[in-house]
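Recall the central idea of this unit: under ordinary conditions, the amino acid sequence of a chain determines the structure it adopts. In this exercise we apply that idea directly, starting from the sequence alone.
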Amino acid sequence: MRKPRATAATSGPDGLASAGDVAAIVAGTHGDPFAVLGVHEVDKGFVARCFVPHAEFVTAYTLTGKNAGELSRRDEGGFFEGSLSLRKRQPLRYHARNAGGDWWLTDPYSFGPVLGPLDDYYIAEGSHLRLFDKLGAHLIDHEGASGVHFAVWAPNARRVSVVGDFNGWDGRRHTMRVRRDTGIWELFIPDIAAGRPYKYEIIGPDGVRLPLKADPFAFKSELRPATASVTALPPAHQWGDEAHRNFWRNADARREAVSIYEVHAGSWQLHDDGSFLSWDELADRLIPYVVDTGFTHIEFMPISEHPYDPSWGYQTTGLYAPSARFGDPDGFARFVDGAHRAGIGVILDWVPAHFPVDAHGLANFDGTALYEHADPRKGFHPDWNTAIYNFGRREVVSFLVNNALFWAEKYHVDGLRVDAVASMLYLDYSRKAGEWIPNEKGGRENLEAVSFLQRMNKEVYGHHPGVMTIAEESTSWPKVSQPVHEGGLGFGFKWNMGFMHDTLEYFSKEPIFRKHHHGDITFGLVYAFSENFVLPLSHDEVVHGKGTLLGKMAGDDWQKFATLRAYYAFMWGYPGKKLLFMGQEFAQRREWSEARALDWNLLDFRAHRGVWQTVRDLNYLYRSRPALHARDCEPEGFSWLIVDDSANSVFAWLRSAPGGNPIAVISNFTPVPRDNYRVPLPMAGRWREIINTDASDYGGSGKGNDGAVEARKEAGGISATMLLPPLSTIMLEFAPD
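Accordingly, the structure predicted from this sequence is:
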């Protein structure tokens, strides 16, 4: 790490700053301004030195208002120096004057450091778990003054300054103090409060001034296209969600109903003029809608600050700041609290895999590859033209782990869905031979990323029981959702990408051909319990020319709607937690675009309203019937009833769990009603029909079994003969009289 140094001796035998020091301070090239500026003891007395551009006269005062001495101008650029009538070192205020007027300022160089040796120790070790309380911009009272403490990691910089509207964006004015053991620069700037935009001006190791950098730990940012960080008060929301949090702390999420509504906050709904809803407006509209539709969780696509709307938040430049698109950070806290009070969890899409190379962001942060790998074979992502975090660097791992903890602690989020895990796990992800570097054992596994993910999951689950982590992992990497101490990555859940791919492929086939693709449905049960799965029908399936879920279904319009309803009931009866992207609950016809709101007018049409009603009823059944959720992740809760009737494209299985009646799920994926169809069942007696996606209320043909079937014991075992409606899924619950 390059160590900044003073450019000359700090004072001569007469106590005055050397000419070299004065020139370096005025030029903004001094490596250690605290050695020159501020209050210094000279010959048993004290002198003050300050840099105040545009001033012609400066008088020093104590913070209590006592005149401490007149300072002389040593350099017309604004360097002042003079003796003080003080008995002890203390912070100072200056009264500056010129021909145009006068102003007051408090000297940041007359204050001591805020960070301490314990911070240095834990930061250097990479084990500090409260970095968000130390780095970034914090409004504090310090040594008798109020202001903002700034701290940023830039170990290879020659100089780091805070710039903002409070100093005319002049990097000479607020040069920071470097803590050499950690490479962290800090400065307390008095007399500024919340709401002030700022950035860091950094001189790299080669002496080149970098583009102004946003604060990696900024808790608030300007609204794009502006990119400055903003000083902010800590979240002051008074939480009222203890009952919700206590429930999940004491629950096993694998055995609870988890039905997730995936939302892009910028396009769920918009104002009539196309502008974004605020968090408070989203709370007023989205939370009641989710409650009414029956979902248990909202999962937001990334809401941390990002410069480019069409990135959907996946190219974030401010991991610690809720996006200014939706208002103040406190608004997001109010949203989460409101959701919790309504019984809804909030999951955030989290992106620790990569970051954009915008000039104001993390890339080349201090003039070196600091957060990213220097070698593009490890540090550059060819798919997204982004930089890849250096997971082998403890400070980078600490930055990311702390961010996960930050959202759980400060905003009470219920979970993190971790994006692009597969791209993190494999060194050769999307790379050809020669474009990647093997690990130390010669393999393709990114062992540093594995260690990071394990560390993140251990810290999140260890410090925030009740918060879940969910991996978007598209390969067969083993034990993604198994505990770290058992050799797993430590996630709570994993997206089942195979389920999504196979089922959508199946339903895109014309019904007459589905008998040849029967295995697309049955194969998923071979591995359904190898992980704790979430079944995702996510935004990825309805963008980039992929159309919509309704459009993917084969057949004419009636068949598309019927198949989609049957598909949803099939999925809600299938083992695994559920996820549905916004708009698909009412069969959105247009492909999703982040630039427009969903087509809410479709709910006025019977077919679309029928799909919404189906999803609503499925969510109610899923939440109220232990058989449908309490053994989602365990093979004991599933058994096939009919697995091999490819000729009729019929599937049937049983879901069961302690504390609830068993439920048979039966799907007929052809448009042909199957009359007198025999389904084996485990118990004789009455089985009540609790949902039938062909019901006329949903827009179906209304065929069914008059609400129930009777299972009887015969020579071939226990079975019930019933009508299977066309392109439908029915669920039968054992309900003996």
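Residues 199 and 641 are 63 Å apart (CA to CA).
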